[in-house]
Fold this protein.
Amino acid sequence: MKPELANVKACVFDTFGTVVDWRSSVIAEAGSWGKAKGLNIDWVEFTDRWRLGYLPAMDQVRKGQIPWTNLDDLNRMTLEELLKQYKIEGLSEEEKTNWAQVWRRLKPWPDSVEGLGRLKKKCIISPLSNGNVALMTNLAKFGGLPWDVILAPDLVKHYKPDREMYLSAPFYLDLKPEEVMMCAAHVFDLRAARDCGLRTGFIYRPNEYGGGPIGVPDEAKPGDFDVVAVSMIDLAQQMGT
Amino acid sequence: MKPELANVKACVFDTFGTVVDWRSSVIAEAGSWGKAKGLNIDWVEFTDRWRLGYLPAMDQVRKGQIPWTNLDDLNRMTLEELLKQYKIEGLSEEEKTNWAQVWRRLKPWPDSVEGLGRLKKKCIISPLSNGNVALMTNLAKFGGLPWDVILAPDLVKHYKPDREMYLSAPFYLDLKPEEVMMCAAHVFDLRAARDCGLRTGFIYRPNEYGGGPIGVPDEAKPGDFDVVAVSMIDLAQQMGT
């Protein structure tokens, strides 16, 4: 292990894409539900559009255009628009809530639970995602993610990449910024965390976007971040656990 | 299981006295430390005095006499007074911090980890103690407490028995108050939670105060609360898990 990592006391994780495979999980559940409902819809496209609504919805909050709204509710807002676009009608309130909460039921990547379990022996592990406490807690129950604590944007009413969100980790954990390592598959997230003094760990997730229109997976070279790993288990090994 | 408990989706726990045995843990660590330092002090009395400083310190915050201060820092303030009273001098800053954080290193009661593990299969489990996030997270690491999430007073800047603290559990977990059960060995805590619409589970902890001057353990009769249990395992069994 690199000597500068010896003082890391907490690893905090981006979650959607980094820890869980949101895309294939949402496509699968949407497909089953659509089949049961007899709907003929391209659920891959539907899922990608839902995900594409994520940043603009958060940006409305970040720019103060709408008051603080957590991710469960932003997911619901985007869903309502999609239901109109796809002319899906007649859903009950309960069905829509359950639908919006599909983001609480996403499968971990195959290496996530084992890698997190190893890291948990060495340091505090927490999500540092844009998902709210309820969403992240239920997601952890669903996938068996062994978090020690749930840090979330509804505690500080800021979304990443706002500084307040990164700095909330050392603040609530009573640590120095350099004792906290932000781990993510997304370079923008790690750069923003580094600007706040946190250590950084990159995890390569080549299948996050499935070749769809959302984006190309980020890559990193050794030395771009404090740790550059190809999986959660690789990250744990590089952290000496 | 009682039918009204079928909808409980989260159990939240008072921790000092209910989940962990603070008194014998602090006495033991203080004794070892004092021996190493060659100090001749009654550590049982010292520990009880430290604990007696807890409520007045929190009340200063609750009444607005001092700004928001978390429990780690209140413990440190009370420790400083005790060090003067006992004429313990010459401690380094690091020693005093480590000392104040003995409250992060308390042993669970023998049934706590197993009982919480069982409850975790059925519902979300979280502390709802007056300990801050960092204290509670480290305490869980120390004792192997398998919390799903850490709810804490520094999220809402209120101490129990303020309503804001009890209502923070359904708020952050996106549940109705009656879907959350407050579990504690202390009747005042359960009564305050019930006034906020939470379900209540009493756990009898006859040895919390060790016959010392702090108090007499609370007792409860069947029917006083939604669940009246003699241990964490009994509580889990009564919750059907």
